[in-house]
């Protein structure tokens, strides 16, 4: 099957490394990676339109990173070339482009989780290649690291050595892409908390509940579980003037005290003064009293119309994994115009599990530019009506849940493309009919090529 792909690639202009990006392959991959403390490698295919679009940004980033002291290299590997098959198989490359971070001569391998523009690549690489934990030596260092809108984990030690400190640094390296870490010998530099201590401990700062929480078990797994669980707030919304208010408060305090030891933080909100929170979570006033928990991956768990004596049981079921995720969703539409309307309840089937190429607009109802783009997408959908391999879709991102780990939406409109092979990437071109149409035509997988890629992936999986 790889011979088929190779013969296809010969008809396509390949990506040619310029001055700063290294070209790696079977003859030099191991030797180059083994000499690098930190290197990012992009696995690409010449026929991949998005790989070509990314490469311009990749080259810019490589130019900037080459001027650092020491320089940080970026590299590419042609995964469609038969001689590089062992590299592609070894690192389980299933889609293009795929970026991997190799540290300490390849002893540590991680997925790249930054954005794909030049500045985003530079920022991510500089953060990931620097110290995993900031050495806090002054109040300025502490205030710079510890803010009121993020979770920060700081280790307090008698000396920056020993098993506890080494375990902390292992943890910081492991979770550095999710949280910010710091360490210090002087707890008095912190803006919050007690200043006396007799043994090393962790202090986790967070923008909710009690604002910080301490932990003293320095086993790596224990610290990781503590951080993940302490970052989850459970929010109980109730009517403070209702007849069951006192009972709810009493039960709430008992449950909060019990499960705070397990790392769940609790917030109590007055339903009459939380309109913004209700809009954010897609809640309704007739669901009060209710409890809701949102995890780091964006999944929500909710119990509406809660009774006071149900509180402890529901939290316990959540801890045991017996509560199904709650999904904010508008009703699934029975009819669609040219561009297909997607909602939370059919997002996976329509987008993620679709065997077709999908261009999806995330929009907000109040966004004027979104309405213009929606009109353009309707016209494109009409133009592509005979192409059964392409779906044009749109989704109100303010009223429906979606996988925030796969789709980062910071402004409206935001467009994403999901190929038939399953590759997902953000559209970053001009919002014109011609540009979007040409982008789809260039990047879509045909039924034949998508089936070929699927057979290839299965073959590679069997070889592994």
Automatic annotation (TrEMBL):
Cleaved signal peptide residues: 1-17
Tagged with keyword Endoplasmic reticulum: yes
Positions with biased composition (Basic and acidic residues): 453-464
Domain Thioredoxin: 9-130, 302-445
Catalytic activity: Catalyzes the rearrangement of -S-S- bonds in proteins
Keyword flag Signal: yes
GO cellular component: endoplasmic reticulum lumen
Cited Pfam families: Thioredoxin (PF00085), Thioredoxin_6 (PF13848)
EC nos: 5.3.4.1
Location of this chain's protein in the cell: Endoplasmic reticulum lumen
One of the GO biological process terms: response to endoplasmic reticulum stress
Alphabetical UniProt keywords: Disulfide bond, Endoplasmic reticulum, Isomerase, Redox-active center, Signal
Name of the protein this chain belongs to: protein disulfide-isomerase
Similarity annotation: Belongs to the protein disulfide isomerase family.
GO molecular function term, any single one: protein disulfide isomerase activity
Annotated region (Disordered), positions in chain: 444-464
PROSITE patterns: THIOREDOXIN_1 (PS00194), THIOREDOXIN_2 (PS51352)
């Amino acid at each position: 099957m790889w011979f088929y792909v190779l013969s296809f690639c010969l008809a396509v202009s390949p990506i040619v490394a310029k001055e700063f990006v290294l070209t790696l392959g079977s003859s030099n991959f191991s030797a180059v990676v083994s000499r690098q403390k930190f290197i990012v490698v992009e696995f690409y295919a010449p026929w991949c339109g998005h790989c070509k679009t990314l490469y311009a940004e990749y080259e810019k980033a490589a130019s900037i990173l080459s001027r650092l002291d020491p320089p940080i290299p970026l590299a590419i590997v042609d995964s469609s070339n038969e001689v590089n098959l062992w590299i592609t198989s070894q690192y389980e490359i299933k889609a293009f482009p795929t970026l991997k971070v190799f540290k300490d001569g390849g002893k540590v391998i991680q997925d790249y989780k930054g954005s794909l523009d030049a500045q985003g690549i530079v920022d991510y690489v500089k953060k990931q290649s620097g110290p995993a934990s900031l050495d806090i030596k002054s109040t300025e260092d502490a205030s710079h690291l510890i803010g009121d809108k993020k979770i920060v984990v700081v280790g307090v030690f008698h000396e920056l050595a020993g098993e506890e400190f080494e375990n902390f640094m292992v943890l910081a390296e492991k979770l550095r892409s999710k949280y910010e870490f710091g360490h210090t010998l002087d707890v008095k530099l912190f803006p919050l908390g007690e200043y006396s201590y007799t043994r090393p401990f962790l202090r986790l700062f967070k923008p909710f509940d009690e604002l910080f929480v301490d932990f003293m078990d320095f086993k790596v797994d224990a610290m990781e579980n503590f951080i993940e669980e302490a970052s989850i707030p459970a929010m109980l919304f109730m009517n403070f003037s209702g007849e069951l208010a006192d009972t709810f408060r009493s039960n709430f305090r008992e449950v909060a005290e019990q499960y705070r030891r397990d790392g769940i933080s609790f917030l109590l909100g007055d339903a009459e003064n939380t309109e913004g929170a209700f809009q954010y979570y897609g809640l309704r006033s007739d669901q009060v009293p209710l409890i809701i928990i949102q995890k780091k991956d964006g999944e929500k768990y909710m119990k509406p119309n809660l009774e006071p004596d149900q509180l402890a049981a529901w939290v316990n079921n959540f801890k045991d994994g017996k509560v199904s995720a709650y999904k904010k969703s508008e009703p699934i539409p029975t009819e669609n115009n040219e561009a297909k309307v997607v909602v939370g309840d059919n997002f996976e089937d329509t987008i993620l599990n679709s065997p077709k190429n999908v261009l999806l607009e995330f929009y907000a109802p109040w966004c004027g530019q979104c309405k213009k783009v929606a009109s353009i997408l309707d016209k494109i959908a009409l133009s592509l009506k005979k192409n059964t391999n392409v779906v044009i879709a749109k989704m109100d991102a303010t009223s429906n849940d979606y996988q925030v780990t796969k789709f980062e939406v910071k402004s409206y409109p935001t467009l994403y493309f999901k190929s038939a092979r399953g590759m997902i990437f953000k559209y970053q071109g001009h919002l014109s009919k011609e540009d979007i149409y040409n982008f789809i035509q260039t990047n879509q997988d045909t039924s034949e090529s998508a089936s070929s890629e699927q057979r290839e992936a299965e073959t590679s999986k069997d070889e592994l």
